[in-house]
Amino acid sequence: MTLLRHTPAGEIKEREALVINPAKTCQPIGAMYASLGIHGALPHSHGSQGCCSYHRSTLTRHYKDPVMASTSSFTEGSAVFGGQANLLTAIQTIFSVYDPKVIAIHTTCLSETIGDDMVQIRKKAFDDGKVPDGKLIIYGNTPSYVGTHVTGYANMVKGIVRDLVKASETKGEHLAVIPGWVEPCDMREIKRYLNVLGVPFVMFPDTDGVFDAPMTGKHVFYPKGGAKVEDIATAGAAKASLCLGRVATALGSEELSKTFGVEGDVVDLPIGLAATDRMIESLIKTYGLTVAESINDERGKLVDLLSDMEQYLWGKKVAIFGDPDQLIPLTEFLKTMGMDVRHIVTGTEGNYIRDRLTEINPTANLKIGGDMFLLHQWMKNEPVDLLIGNTYGKYMARDEDVPFLRFGFPILDRQGHQHFPTVGYMGGIRLVEQILNLLMDRIDRDVEEHKMELQM
Ligand code: SF4
Asked: What is the DSSP string of 307-354?
């Protein structure tokens, strides 16, 4: 905090080798989140205990719920001789003690550097009789010296498709839906849309009922939520696929297409008016459906709110940082609100991200694979009215005295993100409400007393 006060303004020096306050975290956290979207799955971190503790605790701090996961518990010996022996022992112990349906292994920096071969070790586990009948092992390669938590989610989603989907000669009528990295409530909201629109579907991963499971007074090791293995298997017989958020789902979409012949659309996460429209248009294209009146009404309510409150939103300057699948539709939505997005930083890199954000908002300062130090410098040079990002932005917001909307991952100091969706039209209303509250509270705080308005 104190150090942030020394963030220099003025001329910004290019940095290549130094990252200060990265706008990202490590791959296995995303892999762990995706794994927990399978009912009865136990994520397994193939690396040291410290890695696993970090991944679990980050999810726990975001959700305020315990996160079950196991680890290969690497020691110096594993680093020298490889982690196969530890993993084989772990697989046997996990199935006999914790009885998961699936062990979802993700690698770590160390096991990837050693070069542990997940295909070979998994085969050996089956050959050596360490895997009981009917039990499954899937894996994702998640070396964290490349990519981010979003890449880790994408890599595990690819593993889920590759290892759990079954090929089918005949195709059904259902849709295989891969949501990007969104909150459990967002997954529930996407399912609500599909149900209201009458689209038969299988969705995975699905953390609805996993990270927001109710308190019953009874400890349940595997919450009742999550996509069932037998349902995921049917994705190979799907009529089409719908993947939401290209960065987190493109690998899964490619695997569905290449290995199982299931083609479909990859569209933006349905955050905001236009992106939600595009998700619905994709469903119309695939199913020829008529949009339910209740959904049209929700859209109309969002449009009504935007037009009613335009004077408070129009021209307000915004800085945002976070994950690209969120930032792309969010930037678009902020522009729909009439806001002026001045600075954008994503921790995850990629030309696609740069192209989309440049196309949506060509005039903003944009850094792909950037850090929050740079964003803070930009905010000092060109102040904004609102900062949007995960909890780590609170120090910049305080330092610059700017209203701050917590959005994205992780949110460590507020509640609600796991319960109240920000996708779809109603999610758009929630976002507008949150932004308006921040801006109006600011007006009420700063305005001269004689100009204080009761009616806003
Ligand atoms: S960055 Fe690598 S070493 Fe660090 S916690 Fe993540 S996987 Fe483990």
From this structure: HHTHHHHTT-EEEEEE-HHHHHHHHHHHHHTT-EEEEEEESS--HHHH
